Amino acid sequence: MFDSLKFRICYNVGGNGRTADASNDDFGLDVARDGNRLTVRILPKRKMELVHAEISCPYSFSKETSVLANGYQSWSLTKEWKSDELQKGIRFPLNKIKIGREIAAINGDYNFKSYPKKKGYFHGYTFGYVRNGREYEFLGSLSERSGWTIINFDMNADFIVVEKDVEGKTITSEYTLFDLVFLNGTYDEVFDGYFAALDVRPARVGHTTGYTSWYNYFTNIDEKIILRDLEGLSRADKIDIFQIDDGHQTKVGDWTITDTVKFPHGMKYVADKIHEKGYLAGLWLAPFYVEKTSKVAKEHPDWILKDKCGKPVFGMLGSRPCYTLNFYIKECADYIRGFFDAVLNEWGFDMVKLDFLYAACLIPFNNRTRGEIMDDACEFLRKCCGDKLILGCGVPLAPAFGRFDYCRIGSDVDIKFKPRFIYTLTNNEIVSTQTAIQNTVFRRGLDGRAFGNDPDVFFMRDVNLKYTPSEKRLVAEINKTFGRLLFISDNVNDFSSKQLDFLNEIYTKSDKHVDFVDYLGDNTVKIYFTEKHIPHTWTVNWLTGENKYE
Question: Domain range spanning residue 360?
Fold first, then answer.
């Protein structure tokens, strides 16, 4: 792969747009291949505003070939693709409605990456592979600070094109555009090789069980509900973490202002109650978000990120619009450090679930690419949290490698298994049990190597839920087989003895060793695994929920 490559760069010099494929009067080019590593450096001879950069090579795809396109962030659809499939962007009619498109585009890559409406053309971020049978040809970026690495597979034209999202970057000195590694082998071999090349430490966390309040109550939580569900968990055999989700604060962004109507004794009191049960206490935050009506937004409008026109950058639209904080502003960074100190040290929480993190890099600014901003943001969060646990969510994954302890690797699951029609009209990040299953299967290579994979919750309850018993079991077993963080959102007090046995079964660490996953097309995978030295197969259709062990 990439034995024969072509380079192209688009840039501006002195206000003039130019395109080149080799060294010229504006820059020198250093292309170096060292074994399985390729680096492309540009040496400007004058000030250059970068617009686009890419390298491409021919690749002969067969009809049986599958390619992995890793989605932009945690929630983005990630799967293997076949040549007869179509990767969709924002769906019709939302893509034709201005406000609808703005809402749908915020949490994806739609404002800087196009989705050609043709089958057999797919793109992903940071890493990907071509699979022929059980052999993998893997391509991965070793640095995203110079801009997101976007890997395009054109199975019609038989080309692979790797581009860099360099929007917003102007250079005057040597700049590394691409730093890529190529690996061949089995699934485990290529992922082991990639993370060895990245020099990322293995996850420090192991198999983890627990609870989160979101998927039963959403923001409608209070002290009574939390303490009731906490007490109910004492019926389970083993619990590691009890996490309180959104709804404890008065406004998004005002993290130290607890809603005292809901939590009259405050959050330290609740954390202490969790610790009395022997569990770690977790709390949900969205550190780069401030609700438009929040105290911090009103008192510190200068902390809000502005676009080129001086308008505030929204990280969320809809019923609860939120602005994005500019964490590079010292006073803003101090504020963020301050609420982390309160949550982790004064209140005593052991883990924070950090959500909507993509907001930090919605736009490139101050001569930084989106990739550089997100990398700085994740490093900043790690320093804020010290040795406390971080569960990342809604984050482009590469900057989280080795920094976060756990990370969501799929979309939010829905409380209804069957896909909702309205969701088919939006984007690749929408709430979807089907996306959650796919991402859990196809991002399995990250678990333990980059962080502990969080596949999102599974369900046992019978109320406020539209799942059949077999659909509940499918999601639970997928999570158990491929995930490291196993959470529910149910009130265990209400469980029958049969449900409790089911919960303890899923919470028990899996004995399955997955040897190979074959994507068959038509929403179906065949999973080859060994359990107690006996080989098995498990065929799963994530759309219908049908699955069969052999």
Answer: 208-288+332-510
